[in-house]
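Lab notebook page, bench 4
Experiment: in silico fold of construct C2
Operator: M.H.
Input chain length: 146 residues
Purpose: comparison with the prior construct
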Amino acid sequence: MRINFAVESPPGTELDEWTLIVDGCDTGRILYNGPTRVGGLSDGRINRFDLAAPVAVYPFTFEGGVGLRFYQIDAGGHGTLILEVTPEQIAAVANPPASNTLIASTPGGAVALYRLTTGEFQVNAGSYVIVFSELDSGAAYYTPAG
């Protein structure tokens, strides 16, 4: 199912338009790849629409390419760097792997990054889980059903 949206302000002056794709009603999987400035945060994080997320996931350019930085978000909205994942760590895991594979985690495993058999990345931070396929702040991402 596709749902088309247009944001107008004032009426008749289109600012943005995008399509929301619901991929199979039985999966609960919803992909969003619309404009980042409509709702959500515009600070470069991948999980830009999850305003109450306990962790912010940022693509970060290291000397060897793009990796990720994870910040734990406190109740006041302030972030503390808790994990860096280098391009070398990401490249060390096959794409796609034969089974879902841990790439890196914080000490104790409170936040973990996996490469899935689909080739996507999955972040687990307690009960908060997101899945995305690109190391880019504009990447589409979703929260798995279940």
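Observations: The mean pLDDT is 84. Residues 87-91 form the longest helix (5 residues).
Next step: discuss at group meeting.
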